[in-house]
Amino acid sequence: MSLNSTVSAERPHIAFFGRRNAGKSSVVNAVTGQRISVVSETLGTTTDPVKKAMELLPLGPVVIIDTPGFDDEGALGELRVERTREVLRRTDIAVLVVDGTVGLTDADEKLIHEFVSRGLPYLIAINKIDLAEEPPQWDEHTACVSALTGEGIGELKERLAHIIDSEDKEKYIVADLVEEGDIVVLVIPIDESAPKGRIILPQQQTLRELLDHHCTVVCCQDTELKTTLSKLSGKPALVITDSQAFRRVSADVPADIPLTSFSILFARYKGDLDSLIQGANMLKNLQNGDQILISEGCTHHRQCGDIGTVKLPAWIRGYSGAEPEFSFTSGGTFPDDLSEYKVIVHCGGCMLNEKEMKHRQNAAKAAGVPMVNYGIAIAAMNGILDRALQPVKGMLI
User: Fold this and answer.
1) Which CATH number fits domain 175-265: 3.40.50.2300, 3.40.630.30, 3.40.50.300, 3.40.50.11420?
2) DSSP string covering 111-126, please?
C-alpha cells in the first residue's frame, strides 16, 4: 500500500491558525507547494476550513487544514470562528501563523494557551520575515518564514516532520491479538445497507492489517458462516463480525472460538474502551422520555434499514422496555452541550481520527453522560458482551 493511499482518518492532521491577513493561507500554499487556499489582501478571504489529504515530504501522508482567521468579526465572523474551534478537536499538530511585522498579539497568546491546555503539539510560524526589521530568533516552538520568498519553509516542514515522528506510536486494530499464520474469519453481511461494489472502511483496514501480519483471512457473509467454519481444517484463532449480525454469528460460532466485532476493535483502537463498556450499563436503565443521542462520524445516504436511525432505536426500545426520545448527528457535527442526554450511542469512529474520537468521549465524561459504541451496545443487548470482549480484555487501553 502506498503512503498516498493512507485513509484520512489515519493521517496526522496539521491545522494552520492565525489572525486575518497574517499570511496563513500563503504559508499553507508555500508548505504544500500547491494553491490549496485562496490568497488575497482582503480580510477574511478564508471563510471556511479548507482540508486536503496529501503526501508531503518529508512528512509523509498528512491532512492539511487551513482555517478562517480566529479574529473574524460580526455574526457571520463568529460562525467562522466557531468552525475554527471545531477544527481544534481533530488537530494533531497546530501551526500558529503570526505576522512578523506585527508580532504576537493578545489573541495569539490566547490561542497558544488553548494549544497548551489541550496538550496539543504546536509551532509558531513567524511570517513575513522578509519585511521585518529584526526577524525573531528560532526556538523550540518558533519558526521564521517568508511565504513570499520561501525562506524558512523547508525548516518549518522539517520541524513538523520531527513532531510527527515523536508523536507516532505503533498501534494495532487487531494484529496484537493474533499470531502470524493464524486463521481469522471476517463476517461481512451484504444487505441493503452495504455499499455497492465495496466493503466498508473498518473491514478494509482490519483485512489489510491481518494480511500485513501474515495471517490467513477467510471472509464470508453471516448466512454462510456455519458452512465456512465446517470447511476449515482447524479452528480459527478469531472471528470478527459486523455488529449488526452479532446475534446470529454468536449462535453459529462455537463457544471455544474467540469472537468480537469490528466496532469493538475500533473502540479499543481509537478511544477509551473501558468507559464505553461502562456506558453499556445505562441502556437497561432507561425510562420513558429519556433523551438519547445517536452519533455517527461519517455521512452517508440513509437506507430504509439504517443501523443508526432505524435498527438501534428499535433494539434499544426492546431491550429497555422504555420509550426514550432519540436525536441524531453525523459527520463532523457533535453537540457542545450534552447535558440533556441520558446516554450517547456512538459509531466505531472509523472516519474520525483518534483526536476527534477522544474529544467526543472526553466531552461526554465532562458532562457526566455515559457513552457506548454500536458494537458494545449491540453485544450487551444480545447478552454476549462478556464473550465479545474476551479477545481484548487483556489489552484494554
Assistant:
1) 3.40.50.11420
2) HHHHHHHTT--EEEEE
Mean pLDDT calculated for residue range 344-368: 90
Does the domain at 271-381 match CATH 3.40.50.11410? Answer given as yes
Stronger pLDDT, 6 or 115, i.e. the higher one: 115
Give CA–CA dist 148/6, Å, rounded. Answer: 31
115-140 average pLDDT score: 83
Mean pLDDT of 49-77: 78
| Sheet of strand 343-346: strand arrangement | 325-329, 291-295, 343-346, 371-373
Grid coordinates given for 189 = 453481511
Task: Look up the CATH number of domain 3-167.
Answer: 3.40.50.300
Measured between alpha carbons, how far is 156 from 181 in angstroms, rounded to an integer?
Answer: 43
Mean pLDDT value of segment 139-160: 89
CB atoms inside a 10 Å sphere around CB 44: 17
| Angle value at C-alpha 244, between 367 and 363, nearest 5 degrees | 10
Mean pLDDT, rounded, of the chain:
86
The cell for 382 is 444480545
Pick the closest to residue 207 from 168, 238, 249, 228 (CA basis): 238
Contact indicator for 218, 232 with CB cutoff of 8 Å: yes
Q: 471472509: which residue's cell?
A: 219
Percent with pLDDT over 90 in the chain: 53
pLDDT value for 163: 87
Farthest-apart Cα atoms in the chain, separation: 78
Q: What is the DSSP letter of 203?
A: H
SS3 (DSSP) at 267? helix
pLDDT of 80 > 70? The answer is no
Cell numbers for 59, please give them. 512528512
Q: Which three cell numbers stand for residue 108?
A: 495569539
The domain limits of the chain are 3-167, 175-265, 271-381
Contact 194, 228 (CB under 8 A): no
pLDDT tens profile 160-172: 988 887 666 678 9
